[in-house]
């Protein structure tokens, strides 16, 4: 937080708060005010330079003065996916770092929460309403170094996966969110006529080995993607369905012939994101039989069920009981029996039953596995997986 630009009344209020918190004596405040008047520096800078108050002590007091929460970012369980919602350059320019989510609000630590331009820019770039908290400039800089390095490492890992000069990897995305070295990325532009289908048709002329289609939204894109998969390309894409078993049905409903869908599909992964319990305040307890039954555990699981956890809430997690997130996966491997059901236009529920019999974990079962591991709560799984 900047130490300059305070009016004398604000300086006096700050001094009074520091005295009330036992961080400063009246005599030290008087001497610091005289030094401030002599040097025309801010009171905060004078106090720090003279070693009278530590930067964390001063910044936490300034936060109280502004009616905001103070957090020690170095001791805060930062959500890495939130931290990289703004670029490294913007984070350093504004000395700000997104820490995670509190309900629908993006919690952002700032060294200078009075910078309305910074707040507006972060709100515009992330598309989220912002809850500001205050931290020291040093701790924010350290966290930016840490989490934006992690983001760079993630890009390096992604590049390493396809680090084969013999492979031609092309993506069609809307929008291109991360630029990855070694991958040819195409941005959809519907105004210019570059739709998913048009881009996919064009890039197949380049004979790619791997094709990533951001989303299959219509019959034309679905048909081209299936044809590409059938002609030796590895095609990865996303589709909006309720679960993995509904994917084949959805493609057939789009107009792709069932026998083509059955031949093209190798594996389907459904995903849901759940909140991760705050490790600092989660509370262990023995669930009731009724709660276990509601969650979907069978009687055979009730005898020796281990302790599970519920959310509580603390300063580290913004009083929500959760911090960060985890993914629940339902992985359906398309076996011969599943292929047969797809060709016969079988119902998605029948496909799901066969897949579970062959070892697939449903989204709820995957969620309950995370509950048993102490990573999330029963309530959260029931919220995410209806």
Helix and strand topology:
Blueprint (H helix, E strand, L loop, with lengths): L7 H13 L5 H14 L3 H7 L5 H12 L2 E2 L9 H4 L4 H7 L1 E7 L2 E6 L5 H11 L2 E6 L2 H25 L7 E5 L10 E4 L8 H8 L6 E4 L5 H12 L3 E4 L8 H8 L4 H7 L2 E11 L5 E3 L3 H7 L12 E3 L11 E12 L2 H8 L4 H10 L5 H10 L5 H7 L2
Parallel strand pairs: 1-4, 3-4, 5-6, 5-7, 7-8
Antiparallel strand pairs: 2-3, 9-12, 10-11
Helix pairs in contact: 1-4, 9-10, 10-12, 11-15, 12-14, 14-15
List keywords for this structure.
17% strand; disordered N terminus; Rossmann fold; 386 residues; alpha/beta; 4 domains; GMP Synthetase, Chain A, domain 3; four-stranded parallel β-sheet; four-stranded mixed β-sheet; 17 helices
How would you describe the overall organization of this protein?
- This protein is α/β, with parallel strands linked by helices.
- It folds into four domains: 29-59, no CATH class; 69-157, GMP Synthetase, Chain A, domain 3, CATH 3.30.300.160; 165-238, P-loop containing nucleotide triphosphate hydrolases (Rossmann fold, 3-Layer(aba) Sandwich); 260-386, Rossmann fold, CATH 3.40.50.
- The protein is 44% helix and 17% strand.
- It is built from 17 helices and twelve strands.
- The chain has helices at residues 8-20, 26-39, 43-49, 55-66, 80-83, 88-94, 116-126, 137-161, 196-203, 219-230, 246-253, 258-264, 289-295, 336-343, 348-357, 363-372, 378-384; strands at residues 69-70, 96-102, 105-110, 129-134, 169-173, 184-187, 210-213, 234-237, 267-277, 283-285, 308-310, 322-333.
- The strands form four sheets. Strands 1-4-3-2 form a four-stranded mixed sheet, with helices on both faces. A four-stranded parallel sheet has the order 6-5-7-8, covered by helices on one side.
- A hairpin with a 2-residue loop joins β2 and β3.
- α9 runs parallel beside α10, α11 runs antiparallel to α15 and α14 (336-343) runs antiparallel to α15.
- It is flat, with a radius of gyration of 27 Å.
- It starts with 7 loop residues before the first helix and ends with a helix.
- The model is unreliable at 1-7 (pLDDT under 50).
